[in-house]
Amino acid sequence: MSRPLLILRPLDGALQTEKRAKELGFRTVVDPLFTIEPIQWSAPAAQDYDGLLLTSANAVVCGGAQLDAYRSLPILAVGQATAQAAEKSRFNVVETGQSGGQQLLDALAADRYRRLLWLAGEQHSKLDGGKRRLDIVPVYRSRANALGERAVTALQAETIVLIHSARAGRQLVSELDRLNIAKNRHHALVFSAKVAEAAGQGWRSLHIADRPDDESLLSLASRLCQSG
């Protein structure tokens, strides 16, 4: 597996991805495009809700002591990593989505969860709760970084780039343009069609994971290396 994997997600998640990748024999370069920061937030009354929606483990990490108010609420988690972070913090995860927040909400029975509280990032995708009320409270922000020296060095040769979000795709493209680094010698492995759209055209190859998780991305990377 001569091509390195360039991992650009925020540091905590990047280290988890790196660990899995190294177990599979990949060389890795970690250089986060974003830094996760907690922000001040006011906790709505828990009794006003019958469920808590979490679309990122960052909400658990950054939510602070105010999260304790929601211990009695069932947790709807998007993805295994978010579910594991919530369970590690002793929350009761009752639903785990596999293909994004909207898929999780759409799969719920119509009479489940009259009112949900979504602890989100400052930048978040729009979700449609349908007939149920969905209140959004940001508890963290994701601050964009310039493409770092390790990433720039890796991109001097053919590289497999893992892109976990649409925002990361847009930030990466902006940085590549700023630094005059061509896409066409690199392979982009992305979480979803939405992320692929943000990453744009012009890559040597672009591959969309079957599911938005590291296992699917790394499976794509393995097949790419074997075919190359």
Can you offer a commentary on this structure?
The chain has helices at residues 11-23, 57-62, 80-88, 101-107, 149-154, 166-179, 193-199, 214-227, and strands at residues 5-7, 28-30, 34-38, 51-54, 74-78, 92-97, 115-121, 133-144, 160-163, 187-190, 205-208. It is an alpha/beta fold. It has 2 domains: 17-33 and 148-160 and 171-227, no CATH class; 38-143, 3-Layer(aba) Sandwich (Rossmann fold). The strands form 2 sheets. A 6-stranded mixed sheet has the order 3-8-7-4-5-6. The mean pLDDT is 92.
Question: Topology, please?
Answer:
Layout: E1 5-7, H1 11-23, E2 28-30, E3 34-38, E4 51-54, H2 57-62, E5 74-78, H3 80-88, E6 92-97, H4 101-107, E7 115-121, E8 133-144, H5 149-154, E9 160-163, H6 166-179, E10 187-190, H7 193-199, E11 205-208, H8 214-227
Question: What characteristics describe this protein?
Answer:
single chain, 228 residues, alpha/beta, Rossmann fold, 2 domains, six-stranded mixed β-sheet, five-stranded parallel β-sheet, 8 helices
Report a brief summary of the structure:
The protein has 228 residues and is of the alpha/beta class.
Helix content: 25-40%
What is the name of the CATH topology of the largest domain? Rossmann fold
One letter per element, helices H and strands E, the order comes to EHEEEHEHEHEEHEHEHEH
SS content category: alpha/beta
Main sheet characteristics: 6 strands, mixed
Number of strands: 11
Radius of gyration: 18 Å
How big a fraction of the residues is strand?
Answer: 25-35%
Across the major sheet, the strand order is 3-8-7-4-5-6
CATH-scheme architecture of the largest domain? 3-Layer(aba) Sandwich
Number of domains: 2
Runs in which pLDDT lies below 50 for 5 or more consecutive residues are none
Shape type: elongated
First-to-last CA distance: 9 Å
